[in-house]
């Protein structure tokens, strides 16, 4: 194969270029440095900009400040005034029942008073539901006569556990006072054994409804076995049933004696109908319509350990 003069000169020049390039490559030292490991000399001509986080040390999260009463809060303790009102309430009930028994013995009538006592027990559950619905939904701490009860029941929705720490007379004294003022005059004028049995049973269940309510908030292990049995039989309001009252939509299971009226009232939307009537006739808006207002929601930050 012949090589043309042009081809020959081309080969020569490319050889010279390659030789020159080789020389250049040989004299230039090539270093490869690892930037991460090699210290970099500061260049005085350059300004280094360092972006620092707002705080170098992480601030430890503060525990939530407990609100509401504490388990040993003096507000949950009974005073001598509470005990005195409880004693007068219990005396009033005993007077009703004693007079009924004496009158039954004298007249040899037993069936009617016993039946009246059972009716009183059943209607007390209904009464507790209507009253509880009323003070849960209407008024506030400044409402005349009922302000204290309204405030207490609204506080109960925020801190339900406090009812289990409240001492016996502290929990019952308000209702005992009401029973004393209303039932004692009735006792003085009534002599009918059946009526006295009804009054004694009804007012007794109303007065102790707050204790039945407290038991419905306790755990099984902390309750006397007889109370657990009565709850399981449906004689007293059950823990399961009352727990539903403290869950959204907060508009049912108001009855706190036996709870037998809860299903009837809630399924037939009796309280909802009453709320509509009060709103459209009188403009009173029930608190349960504002759900999920903070007033209804349990504050768990203050739960006792
Ligand atoms: Zn309630
Ligand atoms: Zn409750």
From TrEMBL:
Cellular component, GO, one term: chloroplast
GO biological process: one example: unsaturated fatty acid biosynthetic process
Highest taxon, organism lineage: Eukaryota
Sequence segments annotated as region (Disordered): 46-76
Topology of this chain in the membrane: Multi-pass membrane protein
Main location: membrane
Keyword Transmembrane: yes
Hydrolase in keyword set: no
UniProt domain Lipid desaturase: residue ranges: 121-289
Subcellular location field: Membrane
GO MF annotation list: palmitoyl-[glycerolipid] 3-(E)-desaturase activity
Record's keyword terms, sorted: Membrane, Transmembrane, Transmembrane helix
Family to which the UniProt record says this protein belongs: Belongs to the fatty acid desaturase CarF family.
Protein name: Fatty acid desaturase 4, chloroplastic
